[in-house]
Amino acid sequence: MAALSLVALILIGLPIYSVLSKSLQNAAGQFVGLANFIEYINNPGLRQSFSNTLIVSGLTTSITLPLAFLYSLALVRSRLPYKSLFKGIALMPLLAPSLLPAIALTYMFGNQGYIRSWLGDESVYGVIGIVMAQVFYCFPHAVLILSTALGLSDARVYEVAHTLNTRPLRAFFTITLPSARYGLISAAFVIVTLSMTDFGIAKVIGGQFNVLAIDIYKQIIGQQNFQMGAVVGVVLLIPALLSFMIDRMVRRGQKSLLTARSVLYQPEIRPIFDAAMLVLTVLVAAAILVVVGTAIFASVIKFWPYDMSLSLGSYNFAQYDTLGWGSYRNSLLVATWVAVIGTSLVFTGAYLVEKLKGVDAMRQVLHFLSMLPLAVPGLVLGLGYVFFFNNPGNPLSAISSSLVLMILCCVAHYYTVPHLTALTALQQMDSEFEAASSSLGVPFWTTFRRVTVPICLPAILDITTYFFVNAMTTVAAVIFLYEPLSMVSSVAVVAMDDTGDTAAACAMAVMVLVTSAGIKILQSILATILTRKTQAWRNVRED
Question: Which one in 10, 27, 266, 494 has a CA-CA gap of 20 to 30 Å to 541?
Fold first, then answer.
């Protein structure tokens, strides 16, 4: 427990502390208090970036939240056909880097876009393009939360409303909406955090519309002003941390919507409502497919829009970057190690937090450190790794390999959700397993290997896939950590787009999408096999 807490402190706590301390120092490393923050406030350009970030976040949330709510309502509360297909399409943006929708939108609405006229005199390079791409990027996260919230409803409440001849609209506002309020609040905070901290979209399609994520990049990469970069990182950390804290407080007030006597809600046939939900889901799913399809199509076109003949020239990455396919191989290497190391640390840590008794203080420390990454943007954590591991006075500065740092940063950045997943799986196991093993003199590690792991295999597979896919698609967490020979595919997309090789950037983003989709398909196949072989006990019924 102590060793794992120390690892969590090194991977999560100390890098964040490094950002905070750097923001209070001058270029010589001397403590200057709030002088850097005062300079930030007096800089009109940086203040404007903060205002722009709030505008983008507000617009993205106000569009994404109701859209995701209605889509989730269609998935859960209507007799929608092909629900699995529509849900799969809604989650497709999770498998691609955030740059993919930004690049696709340039092909759709850019100067040579095939539906450029739809925007009239407006340009896609700015707030319009950023918001559209972020709606695409944030939509699946909100759908996951809201579909779960809407799925936990007691049918008896609706039966009473029907018996009392309550109008459907009134039932919606008095039953459906209040029952999903915690999901709505959680989804809103997730959207706000994602939209404020995303780097890739603003970098590709933001134009001259600066946001905080771009300011960090400019201060660190462009001006080598590490102190001001740390200040912007702290400013970016504050709203994400506030969102996290408010969400935690709201969750404490949440009560169970289902009890032992509850009857799970099953949607009844309502022709008008079902037709309206079908139209909505078809339109939203079509929009997602058009964006993804545009990216794929653009990657196999010879020279958009002058030569529309098919060609795989954009996939010859050696023409556009000396590393060629090396960045894609680096991504596979990083994602694989992130999945292996992350899954091992997460499941072991969750097991100690849930099952180990007698060290409550240490368990609370480990749980707090495990929850902390959820409130820390990837850009800020990556910046913390630069400050912490590049500090000559730090014995760990010997870890100079950027691939190793990227692996560690991705494990830390995406630690919280797998940790909660593992805790949920372990909480479903009765503590009598450990008690019986202890009474029989069986070592706990034997019980862990022969009982706990086999029972939790579906959750372990979910965790492994989550780590792999996110490590493949992330940009913000690794943008400060790569070196020329260790560039990963998501960063290569940014680099090729910067040099004007948009088609090649699009092709690399498509490769990430295809790889992530392949891993998800493999997960489904393995889950079916593992469920049949190791989860047969779930289907056993008492006589």
Answer: 266
